[in-house]
């Protein structure tokens, strides 16, 4: 018998995929570095005073982003629920214990209708899990500051929730103006910026009381949500651990992994990283433009993240949806973003991919395009 080490996919009979779709939860989101993985492994056999570990994480998050303090939750969806709970209850143990009963609290969350997002769960449901109700302002396409003001003027408003994401379907909103509108009425403002860790300082500069970001997307830490904000809000989020937050708590290994990822973030030459990512996309676009039936271009991130993607437009009778399905059906499966497939466009995010994986994608594209041409 040949003695060899089995990989994790082989051992557990799992499909090994190439993820060109982005920081997509159903595909495991991102790849952590060897250093982060080692930190997680080192934490697993150890005991900790968890409040002390949370204090160290708060200091590290504040240092990395400019927030007053930080808290860690199980994921960003949990951060939405717990941040809303925090502004309703503060650190009052009786109010925390009563949730999701909010009958004696200011319990209305104002959310622009144009920023209702479904990331596998609607952010409206994430809010309601805290016991809060949701008031939508404006329309699905647009929410003006006047419309926001009108919604904020009602009774029992607990907070304003805003979303900074390329998934937002409606017209972009001036987040700073929206935060100011809430503060003029004494209403705290929370920004859900799940994939926006590299822009966390910019989002905090809007004056928001809390900014919620993912640890596992572009920070590439273990799965967790990061609440960055004022001492008051962060303390109230941590206090939810004695209530509904118990089911949404972070693990010791997640916190230690986040600390390791933050250390790497500080040590990174971010200008070089951005240049390397830009060069990777340019090279891929150039190669894709050599393939018949494809037009490729660089697609900057619409939210201002320091990265771009490759936008491929198919033509000549080729169906983008079919092409994406064929890529996913092959070996290894290649996943791409298909939000604009009906317009003949596919989006490829290349950040976590190495040169070998990029070559596989280009080879498979050529094969699928050739097969389509022969079928015609």
Give the topology:
Elements: H1 8-11, E1 18-20, H2 34-43, H3 50-65, E2 69-73, H4 76-89, H5 93-98, E3 108-112, H6 123-128, E4 133-137, H7 145-152, E5 157-163, H8 175-184, E6 189-192, H9 200-204, E7 210-214, E8 225-229, H10 231-239, H11 252-267, H12 270-288, E9 294-300, E10 308-314, H13 320-329, E11 334-336, E12 345-348, H14 355-375
Describe the structure.
- By secondary structure, the protein is α/β, with parallel strands linked by helices.
- The protein has 2 domains: 8-28 and 269-375, Aspartate Aminotransferase, domain 1, CATH 3.90.1150.180; 34-267, 3-Layer(aba) Sandwich (Aspartate Aminotransferase, domain 2), CATH 3.40.640.
- The chain is built from 14 helices and 12 strands.
- It has helices at 8-11, 34-43, 50-65, 76-89, 93-98, 123-128, 145-152, 175-184, 200-204, 231-239, 252-267, 270-288, 320-329, 355-375, and strands at 18-20, 69-73, 108-112, 133-137, 157-163, 189-192, 210-214, 225-229, 294-300, 308-314, 334-336, 345-348.
- The strands form 3 sheets. Strands 2-8-7-6-5-3-4 form a 7-stranded mixed beta sheet, with helices on both faces.
- Helix 8 (175-184) links the parallel strand 5 and strand 6 (189-192).
- Helix 3 runs parallel beside helix 11 and helix 4 (76-89) packs across helix 10 (231-239).
- The chain starts with 7 loop residues before the first helix and ends with a helix.
- The model has no long low-confidence stretch (mean pLDDT 94).
């Amino acid at each position: 018998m040949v003695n060899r080490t089995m990989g994790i996919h082989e051992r557990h009979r799992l499909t090994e995929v190439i993820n060109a779709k982005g920081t997509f939860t159903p595909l495991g989101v991102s790849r952590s570095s060897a250093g982060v993985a080692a930190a997680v492994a080192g934490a697993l056999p150890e005991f900790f005073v968890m409040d002390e570990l949370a204090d160290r994480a708060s200091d590290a998050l504040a240092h990395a982003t400019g927030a007053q303090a930080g808290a860690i939750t199980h994921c960003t969806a949990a951060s939405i629920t717990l941040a809303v709970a925090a502004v309703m209850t503060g650190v009052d143990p009786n109010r925390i214990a009563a949730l999701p009963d909010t009958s004696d609290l200011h319990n209305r969350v104002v959310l622009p209708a144009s920023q209702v997002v479904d990331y596998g769960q609607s952010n409206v449901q994430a809010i309601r899990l805290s016991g809060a109700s949701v008031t939508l302002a404006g329309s699905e396409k647009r929410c003006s500051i006047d419309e926001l003001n009108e919604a904020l003027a009602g009774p029992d408003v607990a907070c304003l929730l805003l979303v900074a994401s390329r998934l937002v379907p409606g017209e972009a909103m001036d987040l700073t103006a929206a935060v100011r509108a809430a503060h003029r009425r004494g209403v705290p403002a929370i920004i859900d910026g799940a994939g926006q860790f590299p822009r966390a300082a910019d989002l905090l500069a809007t004056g928001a009381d809390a900014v919620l970001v993912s640890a596992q997307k572009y920070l590439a830490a273990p799965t967790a949500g990061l609440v960055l904000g004022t001492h008051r809000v962060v303390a109230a989020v941590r206090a939810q651990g004695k209530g509904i937050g118990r089911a949404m708590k972070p693990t010791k290994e997640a916190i230690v992994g986040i600390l390791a990822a933050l250390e790497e973030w500080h040590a990174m030459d971010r200008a070089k990283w951005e240049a390397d990512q830009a060069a990777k996309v340019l090279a891929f676009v150039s190669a894709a433009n050599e393939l018949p039936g494809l037009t490729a271009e660089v697609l900057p991130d619409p939210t201002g993240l320091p990265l771009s993607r490759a936008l491929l437009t198919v033509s000549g009778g080729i169906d983008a949806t079919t092409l994406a399905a064929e890529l996913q059906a092959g070996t290894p499966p290649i996943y791409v973003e298909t939000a604009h497939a009906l317009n003949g466009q596919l989006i490829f995010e290349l950040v976590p991919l190495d040169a070998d994986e990029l070559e596989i994608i280009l080879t498979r594209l050529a094969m699928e395009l050739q097969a389509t041409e022969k079928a015609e």
